[in-house]
Design brief:
By secondary structure, this protein is α/β, with parallel strands linked by helices. Helices cover 32% and strands 25% of the residues. It has 14 helices and 24 strands. Strands 22-23-1-24 form a four-stranded mixed beta sheet. A hairpin with a 2-residue loop joins strand 4 (65-69) and strand 5. The protein binds uridine-diphosphate-N-acetylglucosamine.
Length: 418
């Protein structure tokens, strides 16, 4: 079968309302956490994206029964028979490593394929190991697999200070700590809204957690979890940010609904600084732009800093602004690979280490380009919405990993896209 491509004809204004789906980076962790309870868990507001399918396959491999009904996902973990996440699945999606913590709790051991390289940069597991070792988990890295087991003396609660507020390490640690008798305090924890969503889910399962969403999380271990009969995944702030950038490119007014604008505080400030008008409501933001875009300086940082997952989309705006912008990427070193593709569309970008100096041009020019990862792929489509002529984006399977019906949603706003 020929590889699917997205073709965008640039220059059409965008207006209307778009609904964001549940957060990819949240639902994958909720699915993994369902392993903790021997019973049936139901998750709603599940995005229909390929990463969710892969996590469903990981759970099925462990022995779970997983079924979908529109955005409702049912997972029965009553009869798990394996504690292994195999290479074939982890290789397709790095976030499969989210099962590490839950498997350690459920089986006292886990065997998870070591994730390989990734298009956006090096993605080690050392922070996960250091955090869990502090509680008494032992790791062995052999034949491409992480073998985790619990020390014969058992797990011990205590204070764990992360060297860097890693999202994945905070999540695995929060899960394991929730099953260890006594109080565990995580310092320098990641504070992303998806961490808070996972904490709320764990609390619904019986966990005792406080401080989620701040750098200090306090956990009181509990003995056993119950399955959650219905939990709604938080709205996807990154998908929302992507459509707000689409509105800024296409002029608007575009209303993006189904997420908490508080989760995008800094990106919204940057959009205003770039000359966009925003109307912020409880669960939606409406964006419009009359004048030219202004340049921006931004640097990606852990939450509540500017999210790395919106960096490429904002680079498209910088590439169209009236002046010089400086974008600094502090989280994933390879994310500037995207600049080379945008360069093919006529953008004026110079990379110096982890800084991109972007000089705005009046209009981009349509070209065949390639999506190197999920967010870069979405950003290329946004660039195509501005560009003169048509742009053909290949490797779009990356986009379907994390955006539900991306083409359909953009078309509903008026984009000429197929
Ligand atoms: C999650 C998100 C991803 C987002 C990222 C940062 C999911 C599925 N993915 O990824 O979309 O871009 O948070 O907000 O939720 N690191 C180490 N050692 C480790 C772990 C991480 O050095 O053991 C480094 C990474 O290489 C990276 C940085 O820490 O440079 C951030 O990684 P982390 O916060 O762990 O991101 P993920 O959880 O992988």
């Amino acid at each position: 079968m020929a590889e699917e491509r997205i073709i965008v004809e640039g220059g059409t204004p965008l207006t209307g309302t778009v609904q964001v789906s549940g957060a990819k980076n949240s639902v994958l962790k909720l699915m993994a956490a369902s392993i903790l309870a021997a019973g049936t868990t139901t998750i709603t507001n599940t995005p229909q994206i390929s990463d969710v399918e892969i996590m469903a396959d990981v759970l099925r491999h462990l022995g779970a029964e997983v079924s979908f009904n529109a955005d409702t996902l049912t997972i029965d973990c009553s009869n798990l028979h394996s504690f292994e996440a195999p290479y074939e699945l982890v290789n397709k999606m790095r976030a499969s490593t989210a099962v590490l913590g839950p498997l350690i709790v459920r089986f006292g051991q886990a065997r998870v394929s070591m994730p390989g390289g990734c298009q956006i940069g090096s993605r080690q597991m050392d922070l996960h190991f250091a955090a869990l070792e502090a509680l008494g988990v032992v790791f062995e890295n052999k034949h491409g697999y992480i073998n985790a087991s619990v020390l014969p003396s058992g797990l011990k609660a205590g204070k764990v200070t992360l060297r860097f507020p890693s999202v994945g390490a905070t999540e695995n640690l929060m899960i394991v700590a929730s099953s260890v008798p006594g109080a565990t305090i995580i310092e320098n924890a990641a504070a992303e809204p998806e961490i808070s969503d996972l904490a709320q889910f764990l609390i619904a399962m019986g966990a005792q957690i406080e401080g989620q969403g701040t750098p200090v999380i306090c956990i009181q271990g509990v003995d056993g979890y119950r399955p959650v009969s219905s939990y709604r995944t938080v709205g996807d702030r990154i998908e929302a940010g992507t459509f707000l950038v689409a509105g800024a490119v296409g002029g608007g007014p575009v209303t993006v609904q189904g997420f908490d604008p508080e989760h995008l505080r800094l990106p919204l400030k940057k959009l205003e600084a770039m000359g966009c008008s925003l109307e912020i409501a409880e669960q939606s933001v409406t964006i419009s732009r009359q004048g030219n875009l202004q340049p921006v300086d931004l640097q990606t940082l852990p939450y509540p800093g500017f999210p790395t997952d919106l960096q490429t989309q904002f680079m498209v705006l910088a590439a169209l602004s009236e002046g010089v912008s400086v974008i600094t990427e502090n989280i994933f070193e390879n994310r500037f690979m995207f600049a080379d593709e945008l360069y093919r569309m006529g953008a004026n970008i110079r990379i110096e280490g982890h800084h991109a100096i972007v000089e705005g041009v009046k209009r981009l020019s349509g070209a065949p380009v390639q999506a190197s990862d999920l967010r870069a792929g979405a950003a290329l489509v946004l660039a195509g919405i501005n560009a003169e002529g048509s742009s053909i984006i290949s490797e779009v399977r990356h986009i379907y990993r994390g955006y539900e019906d991306f083409v359909g949603k953009l078309r509903s706003l008026g984009a000429t896209i197929e």
